[in-house]
Every structure is written in C-alpha cells, then in structure tokens.
Design goal:
The complex is a heterodimer. Helices cover 74% and strands 0% of the residues of chain A. By secondary structure, chain A is mainly alpha-helical. In chain A, helix 3 runs parallel beside helix 8. The longest helix of chain A is centred in the N-terminal third of the chain and has 33 residues. The N terminus of chain A is likely disordered. By secondary structure, chain B is mainly α. Chain B has one domain. Helix content of chain B is 75%, strand content 0%. Chain B contains 2 helices and no strands. The chains are: A mainly alpha, B mainly alpha. The interface between A and B is large, with 44 and 33 residues.
Chain lengths: 261, 68
C-alpha cells in the first residue's frame, strides 16, 4: 500500500513561517499589500468614532472652553512623532548591525510620516497655544526639542536622498537616526527636567487621570486612528521602496508586468 | 450633545478659526500623504514595466539590452 507522509509533503509545498519570512522583500510586499488597506479602513473607522466622541459627546472644558478640542489631535500627533522616530531609529540600527535590507526600507518608509506628525504636533500646538497662552510660540524646552525632532526627520530624509549609492545612503541615514534618538527622552522629560510653559503629560500610566472619561476616550480613539493611519501609509511607502530597489528581480518584474495588464 | 445649531458648532465658542485650522490642516495633510505614497508606488511599478518594454524592443532590434 502506498503511504504518503502528508506533513512532509505540505512542508515541501508551503514555506515554513519563521521570524525571517518577511525579511524577504517579496514576502513583505505581499503581506503589506494585504495589511495596508486593512489598517487604512481601521484608521477611518477609529477616526470617525473619535471625532464623534470628541465633538458631540465630550463636554466643554470649564477653563479653556471649546479650544481644548485641539488636544484630541495634538496629543496623538505628538506621541506618534516620538514613537515613529524611535521605530525609525530601531530599524536603522537593525539594518546597520544585521545588514538587513528590509530594515533600511522600514526606516526610510517611516521618516516622512514621522515628519508629518511632528509638523502637525507643532502646528496644532501653536493653534492651541495662541488663545490659551496668548502666544503662537515660546522657546521652551518641550517646543524647542520637538522642533529639533522635525529637523532630525528632515535631515534624515535629505541625507538619504542626497547620496546616490543606496547602501551608503542607508548607513549614513542610520547613523543620523541612531544619534538623534537621544532627543526623544529629552522631549518626553523636558516638562519634568525644566520649568516650561508647556504643561506636564496629559496621561500618566498608573495614576488617576484628571480628564473626563469621554475626553480621554476621544483622545485614545484618535490616537489609535493615527496609529492605524501610520501603519497603512508606511506599508504603502515601503512597498514602493521595495519595488524601486528590487526592480531587476524576477518576482518584481513578473508582478509589474501582471498588474500593468 | 451641546450644540444647538450648525453655526454654533462651527463657531466653537469664538475659537472656530483655531479649532478648524488645526483639524483642517491635519485632514488635508493626512489625505495628501497616502496619495503621494500611492503615486510613488505606481511610478515604481511603471518604471519596471517601461524597463521590460525597452529590453524587449532592444532584443527585437537585435541590440543587447542594458540592465545596468
């Protein structure tokens, strides 16, 4: 009687999933093609829920009036600006030490979205500061270190774009990203270390929150929306960078020819 | 719900310019960024297709394709 080892046959047909499966540009490209739209849809749904909560459920602030509603987008933008920088530096470091191609691609794909959130944090903060503090801008530690973060993002993007050799550009950019990560704890703790006009953290883990629960929920929903948005855009941009770099590989040529019809 | 009319909602207690300026900028930039990323993706795909077409044309003309 003929017996077939089905598990061995299956393993031969389907590649085994490991930690390194998606380090392959081809595998990552396919995965990101599925995850990108899902994250985009999640971002939209969370944003609608957060905006509804923020504008129609959360009450008027007793001290600041309606202008406090800017914090529903200012705080998530500020958090994302820092977290994305750490993520960018992390992937740049992985690329530097392990010479992993996809890690450099992730670092490059994250940078513009991080810069966008930093710009939005500064801009929305300024629009909140004018009616609340009476000024658009002050050179206090929190605002200045956040501005430096924007320059770090822009410097990283300018540096990698200015060097023609992709590998050299990746390594030079990685060095800048890794050195610049020291600015992130400075931003976060600036309100503790120095006497700043900017108030302390809006949320502190493990402590009772002083914000109304509906305000808190609106801010958290919009934070999740920003997270999902960042994932979606980074996936799309990373796919573009993969195609730019893998244009000569058989899988990319087959895929481009197929999608072009 | 604390708004009694659309104009009251848009006015945001006299701070509408600040509130809608913040939300409007965020919305505009978050609409533009994914579009730019998608265009970059499409451009990368088109560049590969054009390279394949150039190589096929060169091969048909008897000239060795340049894939450098």
């Amino acid at each position: 009687m003929l017996t077939v080892n089905t598990s061995a046959a299956t393993a031969a047909v389907r590649p085994r999933l490991t930690w390194f499966t998606f380090a392959s540009p081809a595998n990552f490209y396919r995965l990101a093609g599925v995850l990108g739209p899902l994250c985009g849809a999640a971002a939209l749904a969370l944003a609608v829920a957060g905006l509804w909560m923020g504008f129609f459920v959360a009450p008027t602030d007793a001290v600041q009036g309606e202008v406090y509603r800017i914090i529903f987008i200012h705080v998530p933008a500020a958090w994302l600006s820092m977290v994305l920088y750490v993520a960018m530096a992390f992937w740049a470091a992985i690329g530097w030490f392990l010479n992993a191609r996809m890690a450099f691609i992730f670092a490059r794909a994250i940078a513009p979205t991080g810069a966008l959130f930093t710009l939005l944090a500064l801009w929305t903060g300024s629009l909140w500061g004018r009616p609340t503090w009476g000024t658009w801008w002050v050179w206090d530690a929190r605002l200045t270190s956040e501005l430096i973060l924007l320059f770090l993002y822009l410097g990283y993007m300018a540096l990698v774009a200015a060097i023609d050799d992709v590998r050299r550009a990746d390594k030079a950019g990685a060095l800048l990203a890794i050195v610049g990560v020291v600015n992130v704890p400075i931003i976060y703790f600036s309100v503790v270390w120095w006497n700043t006009l900017h108030q302390g953290s809006s949320l502190t883990m493990g402590r009772q929150q002083h914000m109304a629960s509906t305000m808190l929920l609106a801010m958290l929903l919009l934070t999740l929306a920003c997270w999902a948005y960042a994932f979606a855009v980074v996936f799309v941009r990373a796919r573009a960078i993969v195609l730019e770099r893998e244009g000569d590989s058989a899988w990319a040529r087959a895929l481009a020819a197929k999608t072009q019809g | 719900m604390q708004w009694h009319s659309l104009s009251e909602f848009l006015d945001m207690g006299g701070r509408g310019g600040f509130v809608w300026g913040a939300y409007g900028t965020m919305l505009a930039l978050m609409l533009v960024e994914p579009l730019l990323a998608r265009w970059r993706h499409r451009a990368a795909r088109t560049a590969i297709v054009e390279r394949i077409a150039d190589e096929q044309a060169a091969r048909a003309a008897g000239v060795p394709g340049d894939r450098a």
